From TrEMBL:
It comes from Oceanites oceanicus (Wilson's storm petrel). It comes from the Eukaryota. Belongs to the PRAME family. LRRC14 subfamily. InterPro entries: LRR_dom_sf (IPR032675), LRRC14/PRAME (IPR050694). GO terms for cellular component: cytoplasm. Keywords: Leucine-rich repeat, Repeat. This is Leucine-rich repeat-containing protein 14B.
């Protein structure tokens, strides 16, 4: 698909393509052309020009998402290009903006917004080297600290101390960059570049460190909080968090696996759960909640009933929900507002088919993303599923990996999916007939890859042909065996792997000690 460029944009590309000439000529460029030149430089990966544009930025705000998004002169959205060359040039240019004494422009910059950058799986930049959220967090923190050291050691222009720029960023903290980020946050008040954390994600971090750093981020500004892998947050810690810190603007909350486990609940735990629900009810902006791999049987109502704002996103995958939970969801005011719903890991056809379809019916006018992985959906359920999905005319993504469906059933389902006008992405399972006879579901990791690849490729080709014949080339169909792409996990997988090995070793040592005591 070719995106049209205006004559202005073509001229901007020509100007920045000669980096040496462009850098020398910036002082005579009109202020209102800087955004145009920035996007053209980003498209051509002209790192030196990007650096100099940012270093001499003449406007009050610098919003990367808006600058790279759809514009009149060039409609293609470049905000998903996390090009390392371009982003590093942006950030070093920002540092040098503070230090650039003889700038031809008066320093007007007040707000830098880095939150519009989108991390995606496929990159189109020439350098093929990306700068993910973790690295952006690391680099900004490092530059802030370097800037402070430089300002302390050098006799700077008096005007430099008056510069104060809010840098809005989505922070991503793990054990490996924790100390650096903490130092940058602690010294924030002395630095001209003020880190303003809008979204915070943490993986692989000790609980004590999480509690310390979350207070440094200024939680009153936080809109999104993700506590994901290898943070041992349990229900009592969550209650402590909500009792000690207020999150007035929080819109999205992701909790780690096993935060809740109702199977070992006492009367005190029931009260604790009610308290957590009440605290979440005070978060009047909260519209997204993810709490997968917790055991919440029979407690969904207690947790969600205090919420005053309807949820738009709910992830309760692998949460052992029962009929009462599903009935509450179907009849709650949330049902009519759900844009994204994940019920993976629940045996929907056997346990609660009617209330599930009631929930689907209530959310059908707004539902955009539906995930039903490992839900025991079989060939006999396909007609019922088609009936339930028919009203969901706004559905953009449908993921149903891990279900025991034959290639024939998948073809029938795909023929129907062509009729959903907004559909863009489908994640379908390897057909059951591609696996050896007698395979049991859910399939364990060891058996997941033991299927007839030639047969699978043939079926996948037929499914794509169904889309093609219906003029639905816009729909991407795939089978990511080990789940959807997660940019954060991809970027820190070495650290994640090392942490898992360490945890396994510690568990093994404890087990050995227990065995020795017994003997």
């Amino acid at each position: 698909r070719v995106t049209m460029k205006s004559l202005r944009f073509i001229s901007a590309e020509a100007f920045v393509s000669n980096a040496e000439f462009a850098r020398k000529s910036l002082s005579s460029v009109a202020h209102n052309l800087f955004p145009l030149l920035f996007k053209a430089s980003y498209l051509l990966e002209q790192g030196e020009v990007i650096h100099d544009l940012v270093e001499n930025w003449p406007l009050v705000d610098f919003n990367v998402g808006k600058l790279l998004g759809t514009t009149v002169d060039y409609q293609e959205d470049l905000s998903h290009r996390t090009c390392s060359v371009c982003l590093e040039s942006c950030l070093t240019g920002l540092r040098d903006y503070v230090l650039n004494h003889p700038s031809p422009y008066m320093k007007r910059l007040k707000v830098v917004d880095l939150t519009g950058i989108k991390d995606v799986e496929v990159q189109f930049c020439e350098c093929k080297k990306t700068m993910g959220r973790w690295t952006r967090t690391q680099l900004l923190s490092k530059l802030c600290l370097e800037l402070l050291v430089y300002l302390q050691q050098t006799q700077c222009d008096p005007g430099t101390s008056e510069i104060s720029i809010d840098v809005l960023i989505d922070l991503f903290v793990t054990e490996r960059n924790y100390e650096l980020v903490v130092q940058a946050l602690l010294k924030k008040c002395y630095c001209p570049l003020k880190i303003c954390c809008v979204a915070f994600r943490t993986d692989n971090l000790a609980l004590q460190k999480f509690f310390y750093i979350i207070k440094l981020t200024d939680p009153s500004l936080l809109r999104k909080l993700e506590i994901v892998h290898n943070v041992r947050l349990e229900m009592e810690h969550l209650e402590m968090l909500f009792n000690s810190i207020h999150f007035p603007l929080l819109m999205s909350l992701t909790l780690p696996a096993q935060t809740f486990n109702v199977r070992r609940f006492t009367a005190a735990d029931e009260q604790m759960l009610s308290n957590i629900g009440e605290k979440m009810g005070e978060m009047t902006q909260l519209t997204e909640l993810s709490m997968s791999f917790s055991i919440l049987t029979g407690r969904i109502q207690k947790l969600l009933r205090p919420l005053k704002t309807p949820l738009k996103l709910l992830d309760v995958s692998n949460c052992s929900l029962n009929h009462a939970d599903m009935a509450y969801l179907a009849n709650s005011f949330h049902a009519h507002h759900l844009e994204a719903l994940d019920l993976s890991g629940h045996d929907i056809p056997d346990l609660y088919p009617s209330v599930f379809f009631k929930l689907l019916s209530h959310s059908s006018s707004v539902l955009r993303i539906l995930t039903l992985e490992d839900c025991n959906i079989q060939d006999t359920h396909v007609n019922m599923l088609i009936l339930g999905l028919s009203p969901c005319q706004k559905l953009q993504e449908f993921k149903f990996l891990g279900n025991p469906l034959s290639s024939q059933a998948l073809k029938r389902l795909f023929t129907f999916l062509c009729e959903l006008p907004m559909l863009k992405n489908v994640e379908f399972p390897v057909p059951r007939d591609c696996y050896p006879i007698g395979i049991t579901y859910p399939i364990d990791d060891a058996s997941l890859c033991r299927f007839d690849r030639q047969k699978y490729e043939s079926v996948a080709e037929e499914l794509n042909l169904i889309l093609l014949q219906a003029n639905r080339e816009d729909v991407k169909a795939s089978t990511p065996l080990f789940g959807s792409y997660d940019a954060a996990v991809q970027e820190t997988n070495n650290e994640l792997g090392a942490y898992l090995i360490k945890s396994f070793k510690e568990t093994l040592e404890k087990f050995t000690i227990s065995l020795n005591k017994m003997s």
